[in-house]
Amino acid sequence: MSSQTIKIQYLDDSIPKLCYVDGKSDWIDLAAAETVVLKAGEFKLIHLGVAMKLPEGFEAHLAPRSSTFKNFGILQTNSVGVVDSSYCGANDWWKMPVYATRDVTIEKGSRIAQFRIMENQPKIQFEETVLENKNRGGFGSTGTF
């Protein structure tokens, strides 16, 4: 795969510069750009301190890090965020919508999210038909015997 360039704007100089964690993953970690105090049951958009101009034809997929729930007890409310390349203005800051399951303080700089860029889905057309393939077993059937 060829290298892509992403233009990035940081909220301020205290935000760590984004980079790969060598040998660990091709996802890139994002950190809270502010200290956030949440009570159980509260919702908050946590500022991630970056705005980006993605390459044309790409989108970013934003998800919690695998340790985010264990460490902070927060859930990303939209499960996976999708940032398309048109979200690229000077005030189009990336934020993580979260729901707190317990009282928590998330310190500024805590790594809570990760992202990767993916090529946009190709244009598709739908052809209406009656499917005649063999049924697989219905919803939730994978792994049952």
- The CATH class: Mainly Beta
Order of helices and strands: EEEEEEHEEEEE
Return the CATH architecture.
Distorted Sandwich
Helix count? 1
**Main sheet summary:** 4 strands, antiparallel
Description:
- The chain has 145 residues and is mostly beta strands.
- 3% of the residues lie in helices and 36% in strands.
- It has a 4-stranded antiparallel beta sheet.
- The longest helix is centred in the middle third of the chain and has 5 residues, at 68-72.
Which short descriptors sum up this protein?
3-stranded antiparallel sheet; 4-stranded antiparallel sheet; Deoxyuridine 5'-Triphosphate Nucleotidohydrolase, Chain A; 1 helix; globular; 11 strands; 145 residues; mainly beta
Write the layout of secondary structure elements.
Elements: E1 7-10, E2 28-31, E3 36-38, E4 43-47, E5 50-53, E6 58-64, H1 68-72, E7 74-76, E8 81-84, E9 95-100, E10 104-106, E11 111-119
Antiparallel strand pairs: 1-5, 2-11, 3-10, 4-9, 6-8, 6-11, 7-9
